[in-house]
Amino acid sequence: MSGFAGRYGARPWHLLALLACFALTGYAASRLLGDRTALVRVTVWFVGAAVVWDLVLGPLLALADRGLQPLHRLRVRGVAALNFVRIPALLAGLLLLVWAPLVLRRPEGVYEAKSALQIEPYLGRWAGVTVALVVGSAVAYGVAVLRAARAGR
Asked: Which residues are bridge partners to 75 per DSSP?
């Protein structure tokens, strides 16, 4: 590398992206510093998210992944099934985590009063996305097995 990239260590667009991120962070921080209640709420949210991840969700995810390890030995034509199960399960779990109050229909009147939207479709949509992820993964696994079979000939 020579010139700017040699001195900086990366291409110029990397520096521009980094400066844009700093500008956005500075703007968000300036908005929070002006509103003490918002600053306290965001701080509590970050601390709570870190504690919940470290003490609950991280260990549960590791335990679930440990339970899926026997799938690593399940191979059809040399293609392991582990990641074809792991990825849709992870994505469905992430969607459930993000949309849990609406999927589980917890804020019955509150959400509808504040947004003028119904919460009924969320469970069906989450289930539909989960089914699509599983079907898509099964198709991808089938394609991988067929490609491995053709490569073995």
From this structure: 80
pLDDT at 135 exceeding the cut of 90: yes
Q: What is the largest CA-CA distance in the chain?
A: 68
Helix axes 82-103, 58-68, angle to 10 degrees: 140
Q: What is the pLDDT of residue 130?
A: 96
User: 73, 115 in Cβ contact below 8 A?
Assistant: no
| 7/59 Cα distance (integer angstroms) | 42
pTM tops 0.70:
no
CB 34 within 8 A of CB 24: no
Structure tokens belonging to residue 114: 């504040």
Task: Count CB-CB contacts under 10 A for residue 84.
Answer: 21
Q: Which residue has the tokens 């870190």?
A: 50
For the chain, state the CA radius of gyration.
23
User: How many other C-beta atoms lie within 10 A of the C-beta of residue 144?
Assistant: 18
N residues, the chain: 153
Q: Which of 5-19, 35-49, 102-116 has the lowest mean pLDDT?
A: 102-116
Q: Are 38 and 32 in contact (CB under 8 A)?
A: yes
